[in-house]
Amino acid sequence: MEILKKKIQEELNTFHGRVGLAIELADTKPIYMNSQEVFQSASLIKIPILLSILLAHHKGKIDIKQQVTISNENKVGGSGVLQALSNGLSISVKDLMTLMIIVSDNTATNILIDLLGIEGINATIQEMGLEQTKLNRKMMDFAAINQGKDNQTTAEEMLHCLKLVNECNKFFGIDGLIIAKDTLKLQQFRDKLPALVDEDKITVFNKTGELSNVEHDCAIFECQGRIGYVTVLMDRLHDQENAKRTIRKIGKHISDFFIRT
Fold first, then answer.
1. How far apart are CA 206 and CA 101, in angstroms?
2. Residue 164 phi/psi, 5° resolution?
């Protein structure tokens, strides 16, 4: 593990910006670097939203088979596909959750936020044991951003979310965990932690996030029954592409560690 930590540190030596890192791999000591520092969450906030919906479903407050009609008033820009589809389209809550994660759909995310409300989601986030992670605005709400309201998290708390996805059926039930994990496995944005991984040997379940001068990724790594949890948060960037390359290399070092040990 010390060799892995050294290799990651070497990658970070050529990185210019702020990094928060939390890595827990099977049967090894964890690696934490600035893991409790608060960052803009970017689209990583969509994982706690996903878990909030699944918890509400498990409690019988929401039926994820429920159909929702997409109107022009619902649609926002940025990432996602719903903004380009027909007005009046009917889609299930489960499909909205899938789109929110696999293509980071902002319209889907905002509709899901409306189902529980920002206060309801934040209450659920606290119920799941997260103290610094907060949903303070909807996606593409530039007025809120201009007022200083933004969504936030830490590397350690995003890692906690990943562990909930993989281990905590008391919150979500077995069906909820299967939905969460299957959704992360279908992730379409795989240009960071999974990019250099041999996915014939290692399965990666991930969710990315990015804004101007922000690059994040978090992932569950699985290799022959062994589990790893990885969160990398980066901001204050001089070179956004350099940050992406650094995250890719961290993912490669972790996958090489799994394959060798």
1. 9
2. -60, -45
Question: Mind listing the domains of the chain with CATH numbers?
Answer: 2-260 (3.40.710.10)
Of 96, 92, 60, residue with least CA distance to 173? 60
User: At 130, is the secondary structure helix, strand, or coil?
Assistant: coil
90 has which bridge partners? 69
Return phi, psi of residue 238, to 5°.
-90, -30
The phi, psi pair for 214, rounded to 5°, reads -135, 130
Cα gap 25→30, rounded to integer Å: 7
Mutual angle of helices 155-167 and 46-58, in 10-degree steps? 40
Question: pLDDT tens across 172-205, in order?
Answer: 888 898 999 999 999 999 999 999 999 999 999 9
Q: At what angle do helices 106-116 and 118-127 cross, to 10 degrees?
A: 80
Q: How far apart (Å, rounded) are the C-alpha atoms in residues 63 and 120?
A: 16
pLDDT in tens, 83-110: 999 999 999 999 999 999 999 999 999 9
The residue behind tokens 């809550």 is 93
Question: In this structure, which amino acid lies at residue 39?
Answer: F
Task: List, for residues 49-78, the tens digit of each pLDDT value.
Answer: 999 999 999 999 999 999 999 999 999 999
Task: Give the integer Cα–Cα distance in Å for 47 and 24.
Answer: 18
How many Cβ atoms sit within 10 Å of the Cβ of residue 72?
8
Q: Which of 247, 107, 130 is nearest to 190 (CA)?
A: 247
Three-state DSSP at 135 gives coil
Q: What is the DSSP string of 210-254?
A: EETTEEEEEEEEEETTEEEEEEEEEES-S-HHHHHHHHHHHHHHH
